[in-house]
C-alpha cells in the first residue's frame, strides 16, 4: 500500500470517492462478468445439449455403420470366395480351352494336309479320266467300225448260208436228175445206146467240172446285181423241168448253173476271208471263231465238215475272236462283234 505520508489524495473524501469509483467499476466489471458467465453457461448448456444430441446421433450412426461394416465385410468375404471360385473355374476352363484349341489346330493341320492330298488325288483322277475318255472315244470309234464291218460280214455270211442251202438243194436235185436220166437211158438204151453213152459222158464231165469249179462254165442269164439267187435258180429249174422231162442240154445247163453258183460262193468266201483278215489285223489276239449266233456249235461243226462245203471255206472260217479282256457293248452278243 501507499505510504500515508505520501498519499496522492488531498483529502479523505477524495480518496473515498476514488475508491467508490474504483469499486463501482469493479462492480460493473463483476456484473458484466457474471452476465457473461450466465450467458456462457446458458450457451454452454445449450451447446452441451446439442453436442449430446449430436453425440447420440453419431453413436447411433456409428453403430449402424459398424453393423453395415460387418455386413459388408461378410459380403466382401463371400465375394472374395466367389471370385476365388470363379478364378479357379476360369483357370480350369482356360486350360481346357487351350487343350481343345491345340487339338483343333492339330486337326485343322491334318485336314489341310488331307485336303491337299485329296486335291492332288483329284487332279490325278481328272487326268486319268481325260485319258480314259480319250481312249474310250478311240475304242468306241474302232468298235463302231468293227461293228459295221461285222454287220456287213454277218449279212454276207447269211447270204452265204442261204447260197449253201441252195447249193445243197441243187445238188440233191442234180442227183435226182442223174438218177432219172439213168432210168430214162436204160429205157431208151435199145433205141439210142450210142446217144445215151454220149450223154452220160457229157453229164459226168459236167458234174466233174462243177465239183472242180471250172473257170469258164456255161453261165445262164442272171440278174443285174451279179448274184444268182436260189429263187431264180429254182424258178428257172422248174421252168425247164416242169411238166415235160428235161433234155440232156437242159440238164447240162442246170449243172453248169450249179458250177457257176459254186464258183461265186468261192469268190464270196475269198472276199469274206479277206475282210475278216483285215478286221483281225487290227486286234492283238486271235483264237478260233465261235459258231454263229443262229447255229449251235454241233450244227456248225457238222456243216463245216459236210462234204458239200469246200475245205478251203472251212479253213478260211477258222478266224479269230475278240480278246476276253475286251468288253463289248451292252446288249450285243459276243459272236456279233468279231
From TrEMBL:
This is Nuclear distribution protein nudE homolog 1. Belongs to the nudE family. One of its GO terms (cellular component) is spindle. GO terms for molecular function: microtubule binding. Residues 186-204 have a biased composition (Basic and acidic residues). GO terms for biological process: cell division; cell migration; centrosome localization; chromosome segregation; establishment of mitotic spindle orientation; microtubule nucleation; mitotic centrosome separation; vesicle transport along microtubule. Keywords: Cell cycle, Cell division, Centromere, Chromosome, Coiled coil, Cytoplasm, Cytoplasmic vesicle, Cytoskeleton, Kinetochore, Membrane, Microtubule, Mitosis, Phosphoprotein. Residues 135-291 form the NUDE domain. Residues 323-338 have a biased composition (Low complexity). Residues 182-224, 314-338 are annotated as: Disordered. It is found in: Chromosome, Centromere, Kinetochore; Cleavage furrow; Cytoplasm, Cytoskeleton, Microtubule organizing center, Centrosome; Cytoplasm, Cytoskeleton, Spindle. InterPro entries: NUDE, NUDE_dom. The keyword ATP-binding does not apply. It comes from the Eukaryota.
Amino acid at each position: 500500500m501507499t505510504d500515508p505520508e505520501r498519499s496522492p489524495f488531498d483529502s479523505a473524501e477524495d480518496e473515498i470517492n476514488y475508491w467508490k469509483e474504483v469499486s463501482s467499476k469493479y462492480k460493473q466489471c463483476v456484473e458484466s462478468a457474471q452476465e457473461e458467465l450466465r450467458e456462457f453457461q446458458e450457451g454452454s448448456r445449450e451447446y452441451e445439449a446439442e453436442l449430446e444430441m449430436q453425440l447420440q446421433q453419431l453413436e447411433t450412426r456409428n453403430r449402424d455403420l459398424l453393423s453395415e461394416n460387418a455386413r459388408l465385410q461378410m459380403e466382401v468375404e463371400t465375394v472374395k470366395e466367389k471370385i476365388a471360385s470363379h478364378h479357379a473355374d476360369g483357370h480350369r476352363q482356360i486350360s481346357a480351352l487351350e487343350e481343345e484349341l491345340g487339338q483343333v489346330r492339330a486337326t485343322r493341320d491334318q485336314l489341310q494336309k488331307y485336303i491337299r492330298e485329296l486335291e492332288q488325288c483329284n487332279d490325278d483322277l481328272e487326268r486319268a479320266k481325260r485319258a480314259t475318255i480319250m481312249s474310250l472315244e478311240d475304242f468306241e470309234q474302232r468298235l463302231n467300225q468293227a461293228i459295221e464291218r461285222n454287220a456287213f460280214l454277218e449279212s454276207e455270211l447269211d447270204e452265204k448260208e442261204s447260197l449253201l442251202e441252195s447249193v445243197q438243194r441243187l445238188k440233191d436235185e442234180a442227183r435226182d436228175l442223174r438218177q432219172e436220166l439213168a432210168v430214162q437211158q436204160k429205157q431208151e438204151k435199145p433205141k439210142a445206146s450210142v446217144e445215151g453213152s454220149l450223154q452220160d459222158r457229157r453229164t459226168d464231165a459236167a458234174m466233174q467240172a462243177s465239183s472242180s469249179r471250172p473257170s469258164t462254165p456255161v453261165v445262164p442269164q442272171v440278174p443285174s446285181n451279179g448274184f444268182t439267187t436260189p429263187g431264180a435258180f429254182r424258178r428257172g429249174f422248174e421252168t425247164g423241168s416242169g411238166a415235160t422231162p428235161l433234155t440232156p442240154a437242159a440238164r447240162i445247163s442246170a449243172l453248169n448253173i450249179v458250177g457257176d453258183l459254186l464258183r461265186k460262193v468261192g469268190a464270196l468266201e475269198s472276199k469274206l476271208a479277206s475282210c475278216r483278215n483285215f478286221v483281225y489285223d487290227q486286234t492283238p489276239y486271235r483264237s478260233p471263231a465261235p459258231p454263229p449266233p443262229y447255229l449251235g456249235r454241233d450244227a456248225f461243226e457238222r456243216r463245216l465238215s459236210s462234204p458239200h462245203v469246200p475245205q478251203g471255206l472251212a479253213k478260211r472260217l477258222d478266224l479269230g475272236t475278240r480278246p476276253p479282256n475286251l468288253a463289248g457293248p451292252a446288249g450285243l452278243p459276243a459272236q456279233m462283234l468279231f
